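User: Can you predict the 3D structure of Pirin family protein? Sequence below.
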Amino acid sequence: MSNLDRQAAPSVCGGRGFVVSEPVRELLSPRRVQLGESTEVRRLLPNLGRRMVGAWAFVDHYGPDDIANEPGMQVPPHPHMGLQTVSWLHEGEVLHRDSTGSLATIRPRELGLMTSGRAISHSEESPRSHARFLHGAQLWVALPDTHRHVEPHFQHHTALPTVTAPGLTATVILGALDGATSPGTTYTPIVGADLTLTHGADLNLPLNPDFEYAVLSMSGEAVVDGVPVLPGSMLYLGCGRTELPLRARSDAGLMLLGGEPFEEELLMWWNFVGRTQAEIEQARKDWMEGTRFGEVKGYDGGPLLAPELPPLPLKARGRVR
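Assistant: Sure. Here are the predicted structure tokens for Pirin family protein:
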């Protein structure tokens, strides 16, 4: 998934200086961003109030959108470096192509995991013949310095482990939850899980007290640790929790995101995660000159152009603004 903002703002993420070391309840509101010609997303990370949750550095929620008579998602070829992208759907399909030659149609509750490593490019689009509704989330996971130059690769997992309890089915997207481990490759201690709650569910979900957590509401009405969380919003929970109270006022869908607080400070601009301004400048130059990021074959259209870098030096702002 690309950041298509033509006025892309730089931000430095990571570092433990702003990690909340105890449980909190910090409700984050989204910023609405146009993605391509026909898809609007609600951007939760980076946020004016918070920039990372563990290694999770970017979260977009979109839909449900009625695209029966629309082209749906149409994101031309664009570059990434220093991160993993996670495609997660509740409804619809997304056709993924990338410069390693991968071609896959991602469907609901299947994991599309692209590791950019040193450099990759990809496109995302709704298939020509597609379902009526499109609803999902696109997320980025920052790669640590020891692994940010790995060879780019793509994984598509159609079957993922689940954890069940009365009123709950939790699909483990990345990492491990309550003894169930995702097959997706990770490079830092992290967890991502899709939580399906039935109306009236009332339970406590086990957590790792060393992780910081947030919950994204996808659909329905749920109460997370006493806080009502509506679709398109995200509740930051801090660290130090051994369990999380969940209650469903209707059938509801949530995403649990967590991980060890990310120690390194990262410079993130447009679709690049680096460590210095020189790295970001070189990545933009390489993309515009058609080197390093490879070619996405089969997409009907040209690649995205990178926005202009801001005139002032990119500055660190920490995990929170």
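The two ends are 24 Å apart (CA to CA). The chain has one domain: 21-259.
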